[in-house]
């Protein structure tokens, strides 16, 4: 059960603990406004069509759900997370904002999703892959549940290229780890390319590359 050293159990426990403060941190005056812009940009990049069903990976406290719901017509949103306490926060948010487009938020591990192949038209993950112990497995699962003409957007943190930003980046790493951003500098772009199953259509970077947003679509099997 679980992976060696139960890294996933540790992640779930960490987010259970942080669930009380997560929204306060992520909606902090200036940073919160900037993060909202990134999240809205990620949602725009998903290019949700009428009737699309959307999966939000590592939905956490459901911060993006109200904004995501504004784009979903005649379709449903499902959010998954491994932290029960974060999910509780998400459920409260859904109730508070009466978000009808959300079918459910449920406990599920992105590395072993319980959905059938080709279940979703759109898959989104915002600041989730940076916390997940095995991103290769996660990306593989996200592709498996994505329909063949589906689109996927990943918004996350990366290693900046800009030398000025690097001055802030390295001292910030230990602090970021405390907040659960354990794998801050993951190269998700290479992981996506290595799958040979997704075509990257666009990659935006923010903050000198410290945050990026990758939009991709399924490569058709014979294309
Ligand atoms: C930094 S939070 C991001 C939450 C939300 N997406 C947002 O933008 O605010 C990362 C979330 O990923 C979840 N997570 C970590 N590992 C996971 C896994 N293996 N499966 C599903 N969710 C996971 C954590 O519990 C946490 O809620």
Question: Would you give an account of this structure?
Answer:
- The protein has 223 residues and is of the alpha/beta class.
- It has one domain: 3-Layer(aba) Sandwich (Rossmann fold), CATH 3.40.50.150.
- The chain is 39% helix and 23% strand.
- The chain contains 8 helices and 7 strands; from the N terminus they run H-H-H-E-H-E-H-E-E-H-E-H-H-E-E.
- It has helices at residues 7-18, 22-26, 29-46, 65-69, 84-96, 135-145, 163-178, 188-195; strands at 54-57, 77-81, 102-107, 120-126, 146-157, 198-206, 211-218.
- Strands 3-2-1-4-5-7-6 form a 7-stranded mixed beta sheet, sandwiched between helices.
- Helix 6 (135-145) crosses helix 8 (188-195).
- It is globular and about 45 Å long.
- It starts with 6 loop residues before the first helix and ends in a 5-residue tail after the last strand.
- The model has no long low-confidence stretch (mean pLDDT 90).
- Bound molecules: S-adenosylmethionine.
- Residues 8, 11-12, 15, 26, 58-60, 63-64, 80-83, 86, 109-111, 126-128, 131-132, 180 line the site of S-adenosylmethionine.
- S-adenosylmethionine (SAM) binds at residues 8, 11-12, 15, 26, 58-60, 63-64, 80-83, 86, 109-111, 126-128, 131-132, 180.
């Amino acid at each position: 059960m679980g992976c060696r050293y139960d890294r996933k159990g540790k992640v779930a426990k960490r987010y259970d603990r942080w669930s009380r403060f997560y929204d306060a941190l992520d909606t902090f005056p200036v940073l919160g406004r900037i993060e909202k812009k990134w999240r809205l940009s990620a949602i725009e990049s998903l290019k949700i069509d009428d009737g699309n069903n959307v999966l939000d990976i590592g939905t956490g406290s459901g911060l993006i759900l109200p904004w995501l719901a504004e784009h979903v017509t005649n379709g449903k949103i499902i959010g998954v997370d491994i932290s029960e306490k974060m999910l509780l926060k998400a459920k409260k948010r859904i109730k508070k904002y009466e978000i009808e487009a959300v079918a459910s938020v449920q406990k599920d591990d992105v590395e072993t999703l319980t959905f059938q192949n080709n279940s979703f038209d759109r898959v989104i993950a915002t600041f989730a892959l940076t916390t997940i112990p095995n991103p290769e497995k996660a990306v593989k699962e996200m592709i498996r549940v994505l329909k063949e003409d589906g689109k996927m957007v990943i918004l996350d943190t990366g290693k900046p290229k800009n030398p000025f930003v690097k001055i802030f980046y390295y001292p910030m790493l230990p602090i970021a780890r405390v907040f659960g951003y354990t794998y801050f500098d993951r190269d998700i772009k290479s992981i996506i390319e290595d799958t040979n199953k997704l075509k990257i259509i666009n990659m935006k970077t923010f903050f000198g590359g410290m945050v990026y947003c990758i939009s991709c679509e399924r490569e058709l099997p014979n294309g």
